[in-house]
Every structure is written in structure tokens, then in C-alpha cells.
Amino acid sequence: MTTIARATDTLTRDALAVLQPGFTGTTAPDWLLRRLGEGLASVALFGRNVRTPEQVAALTARLRAEREDVLVAIDEEGGDVTRLEVRTGSSFPGNLALGAVDDVGLTRAVAAELGRRLAECGVNFNWAPSADVNSNPDNPVIGVRSFGSGTDLVARHTAAYVTGLQSSGVAACTKHFPGHGDTAVDSHHAVPRIDVDAAVLAERDLVPFRAAIAAGSRAVMSAHILVPALDPDRPATLSRRVLTDLLRGELGYDGLIVTDGIEMKAIAGTYGIERGTVLAIAAGADAICVGGGLSDEGTVRRLSDALVEAVRAGELSEERLADAADRVRALARWTATTRPDAGARDTADGDVGLRAARRALRVTAAGEYTPVTEAPYVAALAPVANIAVGDETPWGIAAELTRLLPGTETGSFTGPDAGNEVLAAAGKRRIVAVVRDEHRHPWMGAALDTVLAARPDTIVVEMGVPRAEPRGSLHLATHGAARVCGRAAAEAVAGV
Which DSSP symbol is given to 473? Predict the structure, then answer.
């Protein structure tokens, strides 16, 4: 039974305040604007909402005409996960590239410039950075989104990123608590499980979150992962032991706790989004991220009604819901009243992303390398993109090589006969084989075996986590697939 509550009802306003919903289209629909007037305090932007910076700025201005202090959130990690540049690829390398350089000043500068561009568009809340220690090399969803596999490395760059981003007046949301790095399952599809003891978690996974808290991260995002050492029954997003006892109690965190997307299968497929929302708020979460997949008014109504009904049924305390809503409003006030640091405001650095990508490039040559001067054939050995990255964003180096070497041709290949297909398509052209996480895809390694056996002068560009042994006449590890990473690799291939 659906509860029909008046817009002026305090309980309903609190229920709306804790939601961070998405929508479709590049302009704000009427239902969203109306809900802002009824108590909704946050709006989430995804790639489908973005065309140009000017369009996003107009969109966010329209939202603020309804509610001046609205939180406008986005999933803009830079690197492989970009929404602001979803159709071109990011101007910033991702976390793994920054970790490979290991210059915290550079990480801070990249985050500050990214934050400046978000702020110019009216976005004031970024679901970044990822503080996950990528300790499982087969991790299907974190990978290059992590600063690396070393705890201290991840911790210092997480803190630098938080500091840089927030210097631009954009709230950071450090994720995915208590750490998604040791998983072999993508929580978009199922519930990952991390079977290590509490001591390992404390010494490895929690350290970067402690660093983020110390750096003043305004928000932390929970992970839909089951960690039996912390709670054998419920995933972290729904666990009071994880969110309230550990994050609030032991780690002393007092900012906003946001869930990962509540419609992800790890929650929706097990609990349903309504029940999951109620359990998350009861466990200590303050805001519910929804809208990556479900982006309609009906979803907002279902979730707000579920919260109201849970309070009236005694399943969720009114005080807990009010506390969550107050934390959302407090962050909204912070973003509305905080101005960029003078240094961040006055020192825009549009080239910092490209400089970082160039510094992150790792070059291994089999012998003396002679730059390519004639248009090559670029063969992308393309795995299925994970949902966090999406398949809208272009990747590779073909576009950048075409700019440097006009006439460059390209094709995308996958599957057991990919190697022979590459050789047939390339003809006599020099081959540049572009891969992503070769170590995780046996078919990809087999394709490279075939190509290199026939054409040992092939150049290999690894744009994922570089764990496979370097091979080819030239091996380039970019530590990510952002557009600037492709440009850095193309420059090395062409010798410019």
C-alpha cells in the first residue's frame, strides 16, 4: 500500500532529503523541479545528462532556481570513469596513473583542476576518489580506478585528492567503504565477499579511509560488499556494525555517508530497492544514491514512501531519518557557502592532466626503437566494459595516432580468433595492438601470441593494469584509458 503524504509533511520532506536521484535528458524535468520544492536536496548527474559544459551549467542553474543549496552530484573520477567528458574521454588520467607517478603534489593539482571544472558547471559534489587498495589483481571493477596495490601509496594519494578537490569548493566522497579492492565480483552484478580477518582490514583497507577522514572528506560512500569479519549477515551498505560502529565509532567520522547505487544487483537483487533503502538508513547511511539505472519520478516516490512507511511502522526511527536528512542539508549548506581557495581559483591549469599522463607512461623497448613514421594499423583487443566505466566513452590511441599520422586505420577485435583477424585486417601495415588488462583475459594474451609470432615488430599498448610481462618491439603502459593517456602513448609511438 502506498502512503500519500502531503508535501509539507516533515517526515516526507526528510524522506526526500536523503535521496540522490538521477533523471533522463539534458534539461531538468518538471517532476524533479517540483520535488526540489517538496524537500529533495540532491540531484545526481550521469553521462546521459551531459552534452557540453555550457549545457550542464544551464541545467544546474535551473536546479538552483528551485533550491539554492541543492547538492548536484556526479561520478567524475577522471581517467576511465568520466561523465563530464563521457563522449570524448577524460582530460585527466585516473588514479592508477597518478599512483604510478607517485607525486602527491601532482595528484592534488589534478584533483583541484578537475574540481574547478566541475564547479564551473555548477557541480558541487563528486563521488570520488576511490580509496580502494587494489590488492586483488583480478578485481573486475576497481583496477585502474585505484591508486595502486600499496596501502600507504593509496592513503597518501587519497588524502591529496580529497584536499585538491575540496580546495575548489567541491565536496569529495571517498569510496567504497570499507574497501572494494580485494573483490573478484562486481557489485553491479552480485554481492562480493571479502574473507580476510579484521586485522588485515585494519592494516590494509581501512588506512586510506582514515587518511581521507583526516584530510576532511565531506562524504564517504559505502560498498555493497559482504565482509564476514565485520558483519557475517549484511553487506556494508546495510550494516550498522560497519557504518555506525566502525565508520562513525571507531574511525570517528562525522560527515555524510552515502550508499553506492541502491539499484545495483548486490542490493536490489537480494533485498529490493525499497527494503534496501530502509535498511541502509537504519544502519547509519545518510543518503541513498539512485539513478544510474532507475531514473524516473516513480522510483523517487517508491523510495520516499518506503521510508515514511518504515517510520510509521516502527521499523525505522524518526530520529534516525531526521538525523540523516540534517546531515544532507548540512553538506548542502557547506557547498552553498564555501568558496574555492584563492590558489585554486587563481591558478587554473588546463594542461595538468596531460602532463600527468605523460609522466605516468612506462616505456619498455625490446631493442633500439625507431618511431613509426607511416600510418599504422591500430588493433584494439577490447574486453567488455564494466558498468562503472560504461561503453559510451571512447578509449585507445587510434584517434590520437590519426592526428599525428594521418591515414591510420583501426579496428576492434575480441574472442578466440582475434589474433588472426588482426593480421588479416592489418595487411602490411605496422600493427599497434592496444589491450586492457591482458592478465585478466586469456583470449587477449592468446591473440597477442598470434600477432607477435607473425609480426614481431608489433607495438603493444597496455591501457589497463600492467601485470602481464611487457612484450612487442615496444611496450607502453599508460595505467589507464583516458584520452590524455592515449595521447601520451601516441606521442611515444610516433616519437614526438
Answer: S
